[in-house]
Amino acid sequence: MRSRSNSGVRLDYYQRIVHRLILAHQEPVTGLFPASNVNSHAWIRDNVYCILAVWGLSMAYKKIADQDEDRAKCYELEQSCVKLMRGLLMAMMNQKDKVEKFKMTQSPYDSLHAKYSSKNGLPVVGDNEWGHLQIDAVSLYLLILAQMTASGLQIVFSLDEVSFIQNLVFYIESAYSIPDYGIWERGDKTNHGEPELNASSIGMAKAALEAMNELDLFGARGGPASVIHVLADEAHKCQAVLQSMLPRESNSKELDSGLLCVIGFPAFAVDDAQLIHNTKDAILSRLQGKYGCKRFLRDGYRTPKEDPSRLYYERWELRMFENIECEWPLFYCYLILFHAFQSDKRAVQDYADRLEKIMVRSEDGILLVPESYAVPQDLVGFEYQKPGSQVREVVGRCPFLWGQSLFILGRLLQEGFLAVGELDPLNRRLGAQKKPDVVVQVVIIAEDNEIRDKLAEHDLHVQTIAEVAPIEVQPARVLSHLYTYLGRNRKLGLSGRKSRDVGILSTSKLYSLKDRIFAFTPQFADLSRFYIASDNELMIDILKGEINFLKSAWDLLGRPLVTLVLKRIHLDQEKIPLAMIQTMRKLKSGYINGTRVMLGSLKDFLNTSAITDLSFLGSTEDGYPDRLHPDVQTYLEEHLLRSFSNRSTMNLRGGQLRPRTLRRRMSCKGAIKKTRSINVDSDNLGMEGPSPLTERRLSSIVPPPWLQANKQSHVSVFATTPEEGPSSPLQLGHELSVRENIYPVDPHNNRSAIDRRSEFVRQQEITVPKILIQRHRAETNFADTEVEELIAMLRETENLEEQGDILQYLVDTQGLDFNTDGLGFKNKADDNASATNSAGMLEEGRVVTVRDLLKGLYEKACQQKLWGLVRHTAGMLGKRVEDLAKAVTDLLVRQKQVTVGMPPNNEHTITAPLPEVELRQLIHDAYGDDESTAMLTQELMVYLAMFIRTEPQLFHEMLRLRVGLIIQVMAKELSRTLNCDGEAASEHLLNLSPFEMKNLLYHILSGKEFAVSSVARGNLSIVSCKSSRVSKKSQIGLGDPEGEDALIATIDDRQGQWLRRRRLDGALNRVPRDFYSRVWTVLEKCQGLAIEGRVLQQSLTQEMTPGELKFALEVETALNQIPQPEYRQLVVEALMVLTLVTEHNMVPTLGGIIYVEHLVHKANQLFLEDQRKVQGDATLCCAKIKDGKEQQQAASGMLLCGGAAYICQHLYDSAPSGSYGTMTYMSRAVALVLDCVPKHGEMECAIS
């Protein structure tokens, strides 16, 4: 017999170790590993990690198999891997009902268990007795299953198992929005059992989804039926959220060593080399110790201060664990693998040496990896004083198999028995390398010959739908329906994919089905959807965004292919809109917004595009894999006929009746406008308290002249007229008193539901002063206008705005389901036409309700692009943005909370993803009757979600997006640039087209200056200003020019710049970098910070670490109590000055509770004193000298210059720096107000 080579002898040594330490514990029946000799529970995660060493060793043997016995050893080791992976598969398949249920509920109680009995694979603890929902464990299983299959192991045996694994893919595909208990099974670090979004789970799920995509589970011997399909968009969403979270792990854990498995082996989930580097450095600098790394900051597990009798921690005791957290050698094993994959030999050696020092030798000389090291009880005091100085002792299991397994893999790599590529057959480790530029292919198809010819006139040659045959073009909803058949299995009771969403990555592929090829148009182009789809400019803008997104997100084989169909609906007065022509020309040129594109026909791109086989649509379960599933067959046949036919719109108007008098014509006017609640004029933004209603505030309550019934002039809706409302508060009082009877309800008709609703609204209006702006229908408008006549008016008016007002009134008095059948024709016997006319309302003999009339109006308004009316009717019809829930989820998972409603009274915060219906209800409740603003809120949320996907940098340092405030600021900005009052500004705002709305939002988010150029039909367009000087004079007093006219008419443009900036930053909740962690240091040195009546207690620092998101949200909540954005921003500045005081260690402690507003008001006083000395601008308002005393506050309780919260407008408008800057005054105020700062003597000035 030949002698063994050296490498063979060395491998035999490892084989003995693996056998003795790992395989000796494998249960013979199930193949699972128990947690220890005394605990028979088998955790999914630990089991998968344990077997990795066995898999690695088997591949090492395969390479040097020079003798039969080596091949045998290799096979034995491989079969141990198969045995374990199948054992876990069986345990999970026993819980198949949970997988099915979880797809719907995503509830922690319906999740797969995290651990099973190693004896029989059955559950060992109840659904609610353990934090079972650990997406990273299931994901790790799928990832390693994919890698092992790719390395040649056969783990899955039957098609039923393939179906089950396909459903496991659905189970993890929404990981980016499912809070779970994470890698340490804790959730929130206080261990009270609250799940949270964990970056380590999302990263592992992303890796598993990418590894599973298009993988044949039967290896080289499989066919189409054993292939797993993943929708690329789901993996990409996980990636986007992961990138926005790192290096943070979750809300309560600002950092976690568990992220090492996401940025390196086994997941390799991050594509951005810089982000990998930053995350690793953060872990090393804050969590690494002599004995390994801490799991996360203030981790109390197994520390001497932990109370072992209870599972959870009290919030105040977390501070005790600081600096004495256990250190885990496991993470050195991860770091060795991390650097081995980076082929950084020096770092590998460094960590190997460190690890060797802390490993424990067994009696027979084998090195063991212990679970963790803790500070001994008697040395805790010394460790607190000098962290890292004391000798620690081993606690927990030894050997710790998870760590031991990774240690052995590291050794095999170091000694050259394995190459890194063998541990990663799917090449995931190459993800962070630079990729070549993506070329996006675009195909434009005309709906019919007429449109094709119109395009040809512009030298754009395209094919029609008929001409591209045999390739079939379908809308995205067909693809989403086909995907519901994926993973269905009757025997296992699994129902296939639940989510209806198909993103741009999925529709940018071609699909083959038997001998047919399908191309799908993107989801955003689906016209049956929301009204924003009828704004061509917005659709083009979204298209550009999606093409840009494909450039960065596409990582499949082949090039992405975007297919668009140009339809009749897109035409504007029978012409192709100019914006579309320009975009197509740009596409033809080969570049659009910096992305390379190719415009061509479908058949040109067949060879270069990605093609996916839809083989799962066959009837495999009935034994006919080659035939289409009968349901699919019928669906496709029906759909091919239907997909691109147009719907006819309903006709509202009957024949021409004789015109009424103008007075009657005007009597419904403004019904819609009265429902608006955007409030711009009130000087103290959003504060509708019981302040006395004097002259200044009338503008927001009195309807402008064109809304009053008896005015003869027919004022255009877009005109802005000067205020000429009633001038005495007495009249106003009268108007408010008639409010009791707002809805004239016919007593004989039993319409109890409507009565109840109006009763409710009435109570609302009497109790809450804020609703002053909403619905004060003076009943004189309508008391004499019978429903009959209204309907007749409705028929004869051409003007859609008027139809809207009439229908608004009908909805309020009669309800949406009121039948208008045959009304409006009484007493017209002389009119022979009446019989034929009634058909106009009856519409082929069926009942026509007010709702049907509204629908018709909505469709017309969409065609005519009357956006204000569109938004309002959409709201009344209860339409909702299809992607609303998705949009809100997109914002939430990137750690941005969303609030809706106008602050401060009606603000609702959304902190967790909600279903569509609940969201819609919440938004509706927040705005009461104001349908237009409720619709606008939904629309803005969709735009915010678009921006956060494409330009996440806009949202830096913002934690909550307060949509109500953003709407108010948008209106204020319009009123500033247009120089109009608030009423007109909110009217303009609601009439902006969706494209311009998105544009305005963008300018406000990015803080860019903009101007408004007016376009025909009253539509405005928002233009960026290159220079910061805007041509219009900016006015400080908004919407009430009376007092300041003389004062501010001629001041130059820079006036108002800082005020505007503070107002924007305050409304967007933007704060300076590291603001929250710096506030933490201030809080540590004083007993509390009081902001607007809320006190942040020092105890928060006991519970939370400086960089923790939960702490930031606490501070944010306190700041959000301040309703005026600019005032909030000054409070932030005051806090920054306090942080400078603590950071420069000027004083050992700041004393008791600090009232931050006192500092701001003190700074204001100092400012005014200086202004008097130098005769500055403020002497005209707040710094006026009268009888040697300061001027009394104006009777209205407002300052003369209209500054918010009694702070002079001119202070808001001062730059932060400079000798008259706000920071200077704040610093002086701090020195004066705080007792701890010495009043006399020399002191070094740190704030310069």
UniProtKB/TrEMBL annotation:
Keyword vocabulary terms for this entry: Calmodulin-binding, Carbohydrate metabolism, Cell membrane, Glycogen metabolism, Glycosidase, Hydrolase, Lipoprotein, Membrane, Phosphoprotein, Prenylation
Residues annotated as domain GH15-like: 8-964
Subcellular compartments: Cell membrane
UniProt xrefs under InterPro entries: 6-hairpin_glycosidase_sf (IPR008928), 6hp_glycosidase-like_sf (IPR012341), GH15-like (IPR011613), KPBA/B_C (IPR045583), PHK_A/B_su (IPR008734)
Domain Phosphorylase b kinase regulatory subunit alpha/beta C-terminal, first and last residues per copy: 978-1172
Pathway in which this enzyme or protein is active: Glycan biosynthesis; glycogen metabolism
A single Gene Ontology CC term: phosphorylase kinase complex
Primary residence: membrane
Top-level taxon of the source organism: Eukaryota
Presence of the UniProt keyword Glycosyltransferase in the record: no
Record's bilayer topology term: Lipid-anchor
GO biological process, one term: glycogen metabolic process
Annotated GO MF terms: calmodulin binding; hydrolase activity, acting on glycosyl bonds
PANTHER family linked: PHOSPHORYLASE B KINASE REGULATORY SUBUNIT, PHOSPHORYLASE B KINASE REGULATORY SUBUNIT ALPHA-RELATED
Family of this protein: Belongs to the phosphorylase b kinase regulatory chain family.
Functional description taken from the UniProt entry: Phosphorylase b kinase catalyzes the phosphorylation of serine in certain substrates, including troponin I. The alpha chain may bind calmodulin.
Protein name (record): Phosphorylase b kinase regulatory subunit
Taxonomic classification: Eukaryota, Metazoa, Ecdysozoa, Arthropoda, Hexapoda
